[in-house]
Amino acid sequence: MSSIWETLEKHLLEVEKPARYIGLEQGAQKPQHDKTNVAWLLTYPDTYEVGFPNQGLQILYEIINESTNAEAERAYAPWVDLEKIMREESIPLFSVDTHRPAAEFDVIAFNLSSELVYTNLINCIDLAGVPVKSEIRELNDPLIGAGGHCTYNPEPLAEIVDFFVLGDGEEVVTEITNAIHQYKSKEESTKTRNDLLCELAAIEGVYVPSLYEARLDNRGCQNLIARFECAPDVIEKRTVADLEKWPYPKQQLVPITEVVHDRLNVEVFRGCTRGCRFCQAGMITRPVRERSGEQVRSMIQAGIERTGYDDVALTSLSTADYSGIKDVVDQTITDPINCGQVSISLPSLRVDAFTVDIAAGIQNGRRTGLTFAPEAGTWRLRQVINKLISEEDLYAAVESAFSQGWRRMKLYFLIGLPTETDEDTLGIARLAENCVAIGKEYTKSASVTVSVGGFVPKPFTPFQWFGQNTLEELDRKINLLKSEIRKTKGVKLKWHDPKATLIEGILSRGDRRLGEVLEAVWRNGGTFQEWSEYFNLGMWKNAIEEQNLDFEWYAYRHREKEEVLPWDHLDAGLYKDFLWQEWRDALEQKGLEDCRWIPCYDCGACTGFGLEHVVASTSPPVGGSQGTWQNLQNVSDAPGLLQIGSKNKTETVK
Amino acid sequence: MILLRLRSTKKGKIRFASHRDIAKVWERSFRRANIPLIYSEGFSPRPRIAFGLALPTGAESECEYLDVKVDEQNLASSQLLEIPEALTELLPEGIQVTGMAKIDNKAISLQQAVTSCLWEITIAESKHDADNWVREVTASKELVVERVRKGKIISDDIRPFIKRTDECGVNDEGHVTLKVELRTQPRSLRPSEFLKSKRPHLTQLRLRRLTQFIDTGDMRLDPLEVGQSLDTSMELCSP
Question: Looking at the structure, do residues A335 and A278 belong to the same domain, yes or no?
């Protein structure tokens, strides 16, 4: 088995944070690679400290290493200092587990969670010594795969990545392994790379872009035409129907050096039915699938004993919505095994006083800051985006927090949302001002930090047709807020660079023609673009211009109903009609309630796939409106709706 | 409450983890091994672990020490002797607990008690050049160098901090190794500073701490010898 360690170690003292490259984490595997087995290199195309905690990658790492016909190791993008040395000394991209060169693996599989890492993905392929373009790769080159939320519009990477996987990876990863394993055992002379790719395309949830040809229609939009018979017309996402069957990670990795989210993570549910129209994660991960309280507690217990962590995060898209939240929190805190030394974090707080009470119960001692995400400054605009938080809910939450000892609040907002007016933008300042005023009644040092990000329309959301705000418009809105907030004591403003927002927007809804742009930016050294010190708008604009493309057409243009979207061949479970209706309702400021507590409105996520919501508790969580603008007291009149495995949801309720 | 002093190695890949990283690894390992520790009081209680002299990131060691306060009442008597093995099992590859002693609760802290360390430095220069260099350093009465301490450049005579240097050796890879004992009180002379004590400076390829000493005036002790050994089969780091 080959290893690059001996060459690498000579240089590790020349780079920042060398412990990022040594492996040895608790839970790390050192597989003995069997030639006939399928070797996966699970790669996060950003730094170790950002990529290490990624739960998707860790789940697949375990599932693959538990199987008898495959092994998995991990790799991360080397920081610029090490990359320079690697290129000088001809050290290829390597796994941190056994320091095996990347090109010796059968599959290099990437997690894609942000558009701005695309150039890092290309850089990693190149560092591996593998041709960057898929069509140039030969039979014995590794397969390049990718999963994660960005694969819901993978077209900008279509000429680089061999196969994309849509949706939950737990089941499909074994199917892919089996297909490759079988193919490996075939006689060499009968094999072609294209045959193997066809085998992969036959697996549900796997999209092989090279099997399709892109043509432009008379609107200038990309249409895909199958080049081979093995190319399915539509690629459906994968959904694990019962999360309870997949209590992973069972052996969460514990790092030796500093990483983000350095704590035990237990995923309490997947999916979200709040229906926030800007939120891609909430749309593409439907339906809601909760773990039972019992399983959550046993995962916490086993995890804490095994890892030695004293902090556990209950993760999901909106953890306060977990129907067993109160029981799980109470029992974890009072469990004598934990000696009162285990603390819980809720990474996403819902905006209401009930949630603050839960947070107050678990944060003994340190009460530094709390974060809420009202997302928009006025009730009108919150109806447009379907984030139905009333002002009363927000103020009650804030009051509850200040009265229980917190001194700092952080409020997240989006700017550049559909129909947004200056009144909406200034509404952000007004909300923040009122929050500080509430805080001042409890503590002199009350402060509120407002954090604004430019809105990027995402595929498979009702806002996928919306033309993103221009760079200039976002800048103007930030300046508007700046001058307004300057007048208010105790409010601080932070913002995401609108220049980066523009590039995210271009890639988010882009087509195959952007592949050349990505390659050009990468060739010019444009890696780590999500790191503000390395982001370079000029480089992107030049590359787009060189391809005779128009960035305004990609980012700023409103899409029409009839238009073919670059991701129309993919199926995230949502009916396009539903999304369009939601888009029209948004423009009319019509809200839509959380479908866990009301009759099914048929978005497609359940009905289309024969799935249903799985809820841990038969009664909705306590806490009044819970930021849903619904009177949840009445919901308990409709029992059956919430039971696990209730088959006739719509009938029961109607 | 008992105060235990543990000795461990740090070898191989793990040497690139920093002193701070390793401190966190120890803390988690004690918790995983179910060894009840005494915690500090206050809002965020932390276990009472005191680490010895920091090892530079990238250096290996045969002899690292830490003192830890263990809640004896909640520790099964059979558990005590198994602590070294239990921890070695849980610690990352390359860190092995090689000794343990029970020491007086009021014992002087490791940082203050250790008086010198013996280092093995692998260098890039030839044996001939290294021998000459060492001879001149040893013969000199005074070696005034500038070094950075707490962000300030100070200039002082480091000769008194160089306790002894051995004849240079050559390792399996053909590189020259030199052994040098450097004092750590009232402050430490770092091996990197030693290599810069005379021009031309020597180039360090690898660094290994072999021994730490507590010099009491008439005795030279391994820091474990200060206490009461709990395991007679345990070997001390030989000078």
Answer: yes
Chain segment A174-201, per-residue pLDDT in tens = 999 999 999 999 988 889 999 999 999 9
pLDDT tens digits for range A309-318: 988 999 999 8
Given B112, B133, B150, which residue is the final one in a domain? Answer: B112
Average pLDDT across chain B, whole number: 91
Cβ separation A254–B28 shorter than 8 A? yes
Task: Calculate the CA B40 to chain-centre distance.
Answer: 25
* A335 and A192 part of one domain: no
Q: Residue B104's domain spans which residues?
A: 2-112
Strand segments, DSSP code E, in A469-575 are 491-495, 570-571
Q: Given pLDDT bands bounded at 50, 70 and 90, which one contains residue B238?
A: very low
- With contacts defined as CB-CB under 8 Å, which chain B residues touch A306? 32
Q: Which two tokens stand for residue B35?
A: 């060894």
| Residues B85 and B127 both lie in one domain | no
Contacts with B14 from chain A: Cβ below 8 Å: 22, 24, 256
Phi/psi at A375 (5° precision): 70, -35
Whether A366 and B43 lie within 8 Å, measured CB to CB: yes
Domain match, A285 and A213 both: no
Strand pairing partners for B50? B67
Q: Which of A122, A147, A143, A124 is nearest to A56 (CA)?
A: A147
Same domain, A22 and A94: yes
Residue B118 has a CB neighbour count (10 Å cut-off) of 21
The closest of B1, B3, B32, B12 to B226, measured between CA atoms, is: B3
Domain for residue A549, yes or no? no
Q: Which residue has the tokens 């930030």?
A: A478
Cβ distance of A308 and B29 shorter than 8 Å: yes
Instruction: Return the pLDDT at A456.
Output: 98
In a domain, B222, yes or no: no
Beta-carbon contacts below 8 Å between A and B: 59
Pairwise CB contact (< 8 Å): A18 & B58: yes
The pLDDT confidence band at residue A419, using thresholds 50, 70 and 90, is: very high
Work out the minimum CA distance from A536 to partner chain B, whole angstroms. Answer: 33
Q: Where are the alpha helices (DSSP H) in chain B?
A: 19-32, 77-90, 110-113, 127-139, 191-194
> Closest partner residue to A256 among B25, B39, B58, by Cβ?
B25
Q: Are A516 and A482 in contact (CB under 8 A)?
A: no
Domain count along chain B: 2
**Domain hosting residue A338, numbered range:** 263-348+573-654
**HEC profile for A206-274?**
EECHHHEEEEECCCCCEEEEECCCCCCCCEECECCCCHHHCCCCCCCCECCCCCCCCCEEEECEECCCC
pLDDT digit string, tens, across residues A463-515: 999 999 999 999 999 999 999 999 989 999 999 999 999 999 999 999 999 99
* CA closest to B30 among chain A residues: A308
Q: Is the preceding omega at residue A78 within 30 degrees of 0, hence cis?
A: no
Is A308 within 8 Å of B44 when comparing Cβ atoms?
no
* Residue B67 placed within a domain: yes
Please judge whether A365 and B43 are an interchain contact, meaning their C-beta atoms are less than 8 angstroms apart: yes
Contact B21 A26 (CB under 8 A): no
Predicted-complex ipTM score = 0.92
Backbone φ, ψ for residue A454 (5° rounding): -75, 140
Q: Which of A13, A21, A22 sits opposite B14 (nearest CB)?
A: A22
Cα A414 from Cα A102, distance rounded (Å): 39
